[in-house]
């Protein structure tokens, strides 16, 4: 998979996996009143967290959420992009429905941890996207396997590996891959350096790249 320019739009959330400034990071505005997204590692990013501050709670009703989404989609100078990735919170509410009504989507990727309660919520989202006729590109299992750094024994801490795979077979969708549970992934995110940058030849980076490759082929990249 050739290097590409990607972009991520985080809806009402704010983490820092790209090493963007934690303070003083309010996006600048152009003369035409469009926001300029923050950028690092070739990835443009925009989040409500940049606009309201790290510690500020976002307690909004449906209409305000929809207005915020419209601003993130239409009032940001994204420029030329290969892919626009929308990182949505779990659920089947106003946020998800607004997205399906505002833009044409190439597809949805459902991410779930292995335990049953998380999988049930993920399947609700899957069925919602099916109902509004959005293609399901597949499912990703997050925090799937923990390998002890001392004894090298592997353990499915959050439940059996088969749950997400079984759900994929039951719903006729592809299983895109596993993201392991590992301290270095958390550490990389906390210090703002993606795993694929901090250890590009490592097994964890390969897991991310495998999923990216699978998705890229499905959407014609």
Give a verbal description of the structure.
37% of the residues lie in helices and 20% in strands. Mean pLDDT is 81; it is low at 1-5 and 11-15. By secondary structure, the protein is of the alpha/beta class. The chain is globular. The longest helix is centred in the middle third of the chain and has 16 residues, at 116-131. The protein contains eight helices and eight strands. A four-stranded mixed sheet has the order 2-3-1-4. Strands 5, 6, 7 and 8 form a four-stranded mixed sheet that branches.
Average pLDDT taken over every residue: 81
Which class best fits the helix and strand makeup?
Answer: alpha/beta
Instruction: Report Rg.
Output: 18 Å
Shape type: globular
What is the N-to-C order of secondary-structure elements (H for helix, E for strand)? EEEHHEHEHEEHEHHH
Helix content: 25-40%
Name its key features.
221 residues; alpha/beta; four-stranded mixed sheet; 8 helices; 8 strands; disordered N terminus
Quick description:
With 221 residues, the chain is an alpha/beta fold.
Topology:
Blueprint: E1 6-10, E2 38-40, E3 43-47, H1 48-52, H2 62-74, E4 83-87, H3 94-102, E5 108-112, H4 116-131, E6 136-147, E7 154-155, H5 162-171, E8 175-181, H6 183-190, H7 195-198, H8 203-218
Helix pairs in contact: 2-3
